[in-house]
Amino acid sequence: MFFHCTFFLRRYTRFSAFFVLASVAGSILVSLLQRFSTPLDADVTVTKGNEFEDYYLKRELLMGIYEKGFERPSPIQKESIPIALTGSDILARANKGTDKIAAFCIPGLEKIDQDNNVIQVVILVPTTELALQTSQVCRELGKHLKIQVMVTTGVTSLTHDIIRLYQPVHLLVGTPGRVLDLVKKGVCILKYCSMLVMDEADKLLSPVFQPSIEQLIQFLPESRQILMFSATFPVNVKDFKDRYLRKPYVINITDELTLKGGVGVYGSFDMVDLAVAQAVNTLNSVSASKQCHFPAIFNFGDSNSDTGGLSAAFGQAGPPHGESFFHHPAGRYCDGRLIVDFIAKKLGLPYLNAFLDSVGSNYSHGANFATAGSTIRPQNTTLHQTGGFSPFSLDVQFNQFSDFQRRTQFFRNKGGVYKTLLPKAEYFSQALYTFDIGQNDLASGYFHNMSTDQVKAYVPDVLAQFKNVIKYVYNHGGRSFWVHNTGPVGCLPYIMDLHPVKRSLVDEAGCATPYNDVAKFFNRELKKVVVQLRKELPLAAITYVDVYAAKYSLISHPKKHGFEEPLRACCGHGGKYNYNLHIGCGAKIKHGGKEILVGKPCRDPSVWVNWDGVHYTEAANKRVLEQIVDGAFSDPPIPLNMACHRNL
Ligand SMILES: *[C@@H]1O[C@H](CO)[C@@H](O)[C@H](O)[C@H]1NC(C)=O
Ligand SMILES: *[C@@H]1O[C@H](CO)[C@@H](O)[C@H](O)[C@H]1NC(C)=O
Ligand SMILES: *[C@@H]1O[C@H](CO)[C@@H](O)[C@H](O)[C@H]1NC(C)=O
Ligand SMILES: *[C@@H]1O[C@H](CO)[C@@H](O)[C@H](O)[C@H]1NC(C)=O
């Protein structure tokens, strides 16, 4: 693909952009070649008197200014640069163009301390194309300085932007919504940002952007300076000025001819938006040096991440489990792989073997202590009583882990085949420890006919026990923790079928609100526990992952993710939710001496969210992983492959 677009930027200035997209070995290489012709506009030629030297700018900045083709300050530059350098707020009426962009880039670059790796200047613009153009002008002007410029807009990759922000950024150019998003995620820190520029303020103060901008201002330090540039001064601009600018210096450069000529210049760029986005991502891309190299995974959990534990102890989960991927039962309550399998795959590690699976297991890259039906708190019932919870509760899983650690090292030291089957000693501190447990602690209360309030009341006890286990693992060397919160229990067919709620308590997605409210309560409390643990365990990196939100989005917006009936089980036997407690997925009946499969799977599990009334399909698990892998659902918002970092 090749795009070439040329259009008039100003009366006498031509701007042309080339986007070259070449597909190289399956990956797209985007190179951005952008040239701005020398600004030979009337504004510059009529400038008299002032010289750039008069502003006592840094030598390197002056070099950039001259190399960019500016000989003398244009009227808008002449007015705004010296005032901006004094730290004053400015409201400037100015038309579009490179010289206007330079009028705020120059003081911005001058004020940045390049040895201080924090965001010091933020430039907000209404469109991606203007963000790109602005960053390009700032980069060119600052090319002899060691100032890092970053662009972020709604079309750049959130993942790339998050990763990019771990590297030094001094000047950030972006659209308000995205910048606010990054600020709220805690990755974009504005407390050292002393200059905020709002370009095309009349457009920025449209109802779409204004609330975001007002929120953003709250994150700036008290001593912030705001520069507003606008082609017109409508009421919203004046109003904003009165509320947020402090004794602003008002610049009113008018050039009616230019104003008319400039209308509609931006915005004709949409067709290359993708190219712009990719070009920006390329500019923002960073080295892979911050990636963690997890040599192993140790997982703790319930059926959401059981890869064979319960099957090893209580008999195999029979067909059709495993049919989509393994083509035979594989110890998973799923048609294929689980989230933990996709995590392993993403980290380049083998799928985890269950600790309890003594035949054919290879633990060289980790082990899985999860079993279906596990709870955090030990239950007082057995698997065959109400609800059917696993005896391998989290405390038991920890004991197994502890034993595993000690015994694997003993055997590894014997050499031979043990060396290839068991993890190295150092893997216990380098590994990723994943946790997905708690859902059954909530469900067990419902099976004991407790009210949601009664269940809520014991959540603190459940979480106190969870917290202890994380501490024990830490004391055994664990450092990187990836903690899934609990999913929307109230959207699961088995809960809705067995414990139906009144119509008025069903949400717009069709889920039972009371159960989801308890899950959300559990998650809020879990998050608090994670915050406490971060304080108590100084060397631990603990990532809290909002799996609830990722799963709920599959159920509330199934079409968007390629799914059809999110509330019915793919594999089951009739009823509103295709779920029947007594005739589960894979159940058979004897009829006339013949076995007949009555708990049948749907034809195409890849378009179903729910597999058997309790568990998600492989397709849904894959979608969940895709959503969470880049950190968009995490606190802190770091990607999976960076989860070893405590402070980024
Ligand atoms: C700016 O200048 C124009 C033209 O001289 C004038 O009409 C307008 O009122 C001025 N605006 C302000 C805010 O001073
Ligand atoms: C099991 O019983 C003990 C003793 O009565 C009680 O303290 C504990 O909370 C019970 N556990 C659960 C999960 O109900
Ligand atoms: C165990 O798995 C590792 C990594 O996949 C492999 O290198 C090793 O040879 C395996 N051991 C055996 C005995 O198969
Ligand atoms: C819960 O209530 C149902 C219906 O009233 C009853 O059949 C069941 O035995 C009760 N379960 C427990 C654990 O009390």
TrEMBL record:
Ranges where the DEAD-box RNA helicase Q domain occurs: 50-78
Molecular function terms from GO: ATP binding; hydrolase activity, acting on ester bonds; nucleic acid binding; RNA helicase activity
Assigned protein family: Belongs to the DEAD box helicase family.
Keyword Signal among record annotations: yes
Protein name: ATP-dependent RNA helicase DDX6/DHH1
SUPFAM superfamilies: P-loop containing nucleoside triphosphate hydrolases
Bilayer-crossing regions: 12-33
Superkingdom of the organism of origin: Eukaryota
Any single Pfam family the record assigns to this protein: Lipase_GDSL
Alphabetical list of PANTHER family matching this protein: ALPHA-L-FUCOSIDASE 3 (PTHR22835:SF588), ZINC FINGER FYVE DOMAIN CONTAINING PROTEIN (PTHR22835)
Domain Helicase ATP-binding: 81-251
UniProt KW keywords: ATP-binding, Glycoprotein, Helicase, Hydrolase, Membrane, Nucleotide-binding, Signal, Transmembrane, Transmembrane helix
InterPro entries: DEAD/DEAH_box_helicase_dom (IPR011545), GDSL (IPR001087), Helicase_ATP-bd (IPR014001), P-loop_NTPase (IPR027417), RNA-helicase_DEAD-box_CS (IPR000629), RNA_helicase_DEAD_Q_motif (IPR014014), SGNH_hydro_sf (IPR036514), SGNH_plant_lipase-like (IPR035669)
Motif (Q motif): 50-78
